[in-house]
């Protein structure tokens, strides 16, 4: 059956992919309500990404399709939040460039290793990166809501505004985690890269 309990992990991955255009649209609207709905959707996406792998293992339905969806869906929805933030002036282009390039590099390293019969598993920093990045994105969206007179500007008598103004610190931590976790992948792949640097001499 297409919609069975055992298909839930794959459906969660598909959900993150097909709702990414909605996330992009909400950020581009740039209204107070749209920013809050973008926060809700982003949090739901992140939570689904955290549980689908565990659910697949619990149900014993880990599959190549599930791994594929889980691998690409987080990159897609994070990019779906980052790119419109640049277009609307909420983030600097170099921040988004750094995060997206890291994803290309890591994906390339894992594909290269897989072609050599080696699996490079996600390290602790890599797993933390998504959480730190989503927190930074949510922080930025809430700050944007406050900046244009949304509910966050008056919540608790405006007491949250100074805290929301610290979003650049959260984004800096996200960039730091992005770079360091990328270096962690490179460190694990380095022996394989070094061995493969010299062209192999084929036998006669």
* CATH architecture tag: Up-down Bundle
CATH superfamily: CDP-alcohol phosphotransferase transmembrane (TM) domain
Estimate what percentage of residues fall within beta strands.
Answer: under 5%
CATH class: Mainly Alpha
Main beta-sheet strand count, sense and barrel state:
none
- Radius of gyration equals 19 Å
Alpha-carbon distance between the two ends: 53 Å
Task: Summarize model confidence as the mean pLDDT.
Answer: 86
Q: Uncertain segments of ≥5 residues (pLDDT<50)?
A: none
Shape type: globular
The H/E string reads HHHHHHHHH
Number of helices: 9
Number of strands: 0
Which bin fits the share of residues in helices?
A: over 70%
Q: How many structural domains can be distinguished in the coordinates? A: 1
């Amino acid at each position: 059956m297409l919609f069975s309990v055992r298909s839930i992990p794959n459906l969660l991955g598909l959900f993150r992919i097909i709702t990414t255009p909605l996330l992009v649209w909400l950020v581009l609207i740039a209204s107070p309500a749209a920013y809050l709905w973008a926060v809700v959707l982003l949090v739901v996406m992140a939570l689904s990404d955290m549980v689908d792998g565990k659910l697949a293992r619990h149900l014993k339905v880990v599959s190549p399709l599930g791994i594929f969806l889980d691998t690409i869906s987080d990159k897609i929805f994070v990019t779906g939040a980052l790119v419109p933030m640049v277009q609307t002036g909420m983030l600097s282009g170099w921040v988004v460039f750094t995060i997206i390039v890291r994803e290309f590099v890591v994906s390339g390293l894992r594909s290269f290793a897989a072609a050599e019969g080696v699996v490079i598993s996600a390290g602790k920093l890599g797993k933390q990166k998504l959480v730190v990045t989503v927190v930074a994105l949510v922080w930025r969206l809430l700050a944007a809501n406050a900046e244009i007179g949304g509910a966050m500007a008056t919540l608790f008598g405006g007491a949250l505004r100074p805290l929301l103004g610290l979003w650049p610190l959260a984004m800096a931590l996200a960039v730091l985690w992005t770079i360091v976790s990328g270096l962690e992948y490179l460190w694990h792949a380095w022996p394989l890269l070094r061995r493969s640097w010299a062209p192999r001499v084929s036998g006669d």
